[in-house]
Specification:
elongated; 434 Repressor (Amino-terminal Domain); single chain; alpha/beta; 12 helices; Lambda_DNA-bd_dom_sf; 6 strands; DUF5753; Cro/C1-type_HTH; Helix-turn-helix transcriptional regulator; Endonuclease, Chain A; 13% strand
């Protein structure tokens, strides 16, 4: 399996498992009905084997999948081996992040909570370069910083996607807006201006958690929720040397509850968040 298609296959597999469990069927029962080995049926659900359109159709019939979901996941099966633009950057981003970008390209909504840095979809190129160079990674060279910034610019094209409009909702700690890079105050100043500009777009919502609110559902760290056209979702957590993703409905529900609390009860309103950002812009201009 190529690295560029693994996320799509796993997403199809995860959905097949949800449908199967919802119908109260064991994997062995599915294997028997489709006259395949248990190992083959298992590989469909783990994403280690591509599900053919014929097999998908038979499984969708077995699981009594509704028409909209059926069409949506059929497209994913058909396009599972299509390489995306992100495969060009395989030497500078991790396997986990490549999988995330692939899933992000299929989403219609994204919620991001960040505590330390501006989320990638909102970063200026210079801010992105500075983040790479100051993270202390052994391979944090100027060349890598330039390539990663280029990759991030390509990723941001999703914000102006016309074929399938994409909504972004970001909640970030106030401290994210206060961090500066030593000797380069202009980087954060331009980043704040960029945030203010992006916040005027109808598909982008930005809220800020004030410094005085330190105990809340986001205290355990950053997280991202991708929501797809059918309503199902993936939660992504990026760690220092790895990443974790889950499609499990129970786990997704916990993060969605945290999202609602952060956006509705913890963060400033959009209007007050923009007021805070405006004040920071005025102070940095002095």
């Amino acid at each position: 399996m190529s690295e560029g298609t693994s996320a799509r296959r796993r997403r199809v597999g995860a959905q097949l498992r949800q449908w199967r469990v919802g119908e109260g069927l064991t994997l062995q029962e599915v294997a028997d009905r489709l006259e395949v080995s248990l190992a083959t049926a298992s590989r469909w659900e783990t994403g280690s084997t591509k599900v053919s359109l014929d097999t998908y159709s038979r499984l969708a019939d077995l699981y009594r999948v509704d028409a909209d979901s059926r069409v949506y996941f059929e497209r994913l099966c058909r396009d599972a081996d299509e390489a995306g633009w992100w495969t060009r950057y395989g030497d500078v981003i991790s396997h986990g992040f490549r999988d995330f970008i692939e899933l992000e390209s299929q989403a219609v909504r994204e919620f991001v909570f960040h505590t330390m840095v501006v989320p990638g979809l909102l970063q200026t190129a210079e801010y992105r370069r500075a983040v790479v160079l100051t993270q202390g990674a052994p391979d944090g060279t100027a060349r890598k910083a330039d390539v990663v910034a280029d990759m991030n610019a390509a990723r941001q094209s999703i914000l102006t996607r016309l074929a399938s409009p994409f909504d972004l909702h970001v909640v970030m700690q106030e401290s994210v807006l206060l961090h500066e890079f030593d000797g380069q105050p202009h980087i954060m100043r331009e980043q704040r201006r960029r945030l203010r500009e992006l916040a005027t777009r109808p598909n982008i919502t930005i809220q800020v958690v004030p410094l005085r609110r330190s105990s809340h559902p986001g205290s355990n760290g950053d997280f991202t929720i991708l929501t797809y056209g059918g309503g199902e979702a993936t939660v992504y957590n990026e760690l220092l040397t790895s990443s974790v993703m889950t499609n499990d409905p129970a786990e997704v529900a916990v993060y969605r509850a945290a999202m609602e609390t952060l956006a509705g009860d913890v963060a400033l309103s959009v209007e007050d968040s923009m007021g805070l950002l405006d004040r920071l812009l005025e102070e940095s201009a002095v």
